[in-house]
Specification:
Number of helices: 10
Mean pLDDT: 93
CATH topology: Isopropylmalate Dehydrogenase
Structural class: alpha/beta
Low-confidence stretches: none
CATH superfamily: Isopropylmalate Dehydrogenase
Radius of gyration: 20 Å
Strand order of the largest sheet: 1-10-9-2-3-8-6-7
Order of helices and strands: HHEHEEEEHEHEHEHEEHHH
Strand content: 15-25%
Distance between the termini: 24 Å
CATH architecture: 3-Layer(aba) Sandwich
Number of domains: 1
Helix content: 40-55%
Length: about 325
């Protein structure tokens, strides 16, 4: 596997006025997959006051409509919740990544004492999103990771756009009678993610709702340092940790490497599925399980997870778990 480093992000924007150079975008489009680092800086912003977000530009450029945020807590793994005996958390939140309330990003209207952002949901994107969700649920069921259930998370009791979203979901359900399907309002889902997160399998929702719920999912695992993600389209995919660049600790060598390693594991899984390559899939699984074993032991953890290890030590523990002597 060969890696090519490409410039992008807030620091690059501060130097050049470009957040995602055309050459970087072109090279990323030619790659088999894109592994993206955290690249925002709160003090570096566009003229309209919004933060630099090349990851959103990539989603729009490559039609990356499905944002995957896996949430996994194994029995015995430390975290904010005490799991009932025999329970584990293992679900995937799929966030629509191209539309929703992010549709008008950079184009919102501010006039006098009022501001307007436009939420947009289309049939074309929603159908792709729901088909992807059911395919993922079927794959998880086949490998014993879930019961084969997709939950549409919306606010269809209040907003016509979400009633439309739910209606499209129900149409797609009819093509997947071998799987279970249900609905949940987003506020209730947030409650249930804390009360009974082990009940979920695959959740699919709008962009902004997914953005918020994915951070709650990260909290269930112990923090953003354990939260990987993927943004997937029909031809391209981007993999990156959910956390930001943490400028307060930048350069000190104390940041958690786990979310990036888990994102790389997701990349291997996707490449394996896309190319029918079992060794790649196996490597993705082994890498994920190596991180999980280190977390479960509670040793060589960075301070965000209650330990004192630095980045190199934490990554070294994963390496030793992956290749035991």
């Amino acid at each position: 596997m060969r890696f090519t480093s490409l410039p992008a992000g807030a620091a690059h924007y501060a130097k050049t006025g470009e957040s995602l150079p055309v050459a970087s975008l072109k090279a990323a489009g030619a790659a088999d997959a894109i592994l993206l680092s955290a690249m925002g800086l709160p003090q570096v912003r566009y003229p309209d006051g919004t933060e630099i977000s090349p990851q959103i530009e990539l989603r729009k450029a490559f039609g990356l409509f499905a944002g995957l945020r896996p949430v996994r807590v194994r029995a015995g793994q430390p975290g904010p919740l005490t799991l009932p005996e025999g329970r584990e958390i293992d679900f995937v939140l799929i966030r629509e990544s191209a539309e929703g309330l992010f549709h008008s990003q950079g184009r919102g209207e501010v006039s006098g004492d009022a501001a307007t952002e436009t939420l947009r949901i289309t049939r074309a994107t929603s159908e792709k999103l729901f088909r992807f969700a059911f395919a993922l649920a079927a794959s998880r069921k086949a490998t014993g990771r879930g019961p084969g259930r997709v939950t549409c998370v919306d606010k269809a009791n209040v907003f016509r756009a979400f009633a439309f979203f739910r209606g499209i979901f129900d149409e797609v359900v009819s093509d997947h009678t071998d799987l279970a399907a249900d609905h949940a309002y987003v506020d209730a889902t947030a409650l249930w993610m804390v009360q009974k997160p082990w009940d979920f399998d695959v959740l699919v929702t709008e962009n902004m709702f997914g953005d918020i719920l994915s951070d709650l999912g990260a909290g269930l695992m112990g923090g953003l340092g354990l939260a990987p993600s993927a943004d997937i389209g029909l031809e391209h995919a981007v993999f990156q940790p959910c956390h930001g660049s943490a400028p307060d600790i930048a350069g000190r060598g104390v940041a958690s490497p786990h979310a990036m390693i888990l994102s790389a594991a997701m990349m291997l899984d996707w490449l394996g599925e896309r190319h029918g390559n079992d060794p790649l899939r196996d490597d993705g699984r082994r890498l994920r399980e190596a991180v999980e074993s280190v977390i479960a032991r509670g040793k060589s953890l960075t301070r965000d997870l209650g330990g004192s290890a630095d980045t190199t030590e934490a990554a070294g523990a994963v390496m030793r778990a992956l290749f035991p002597q």
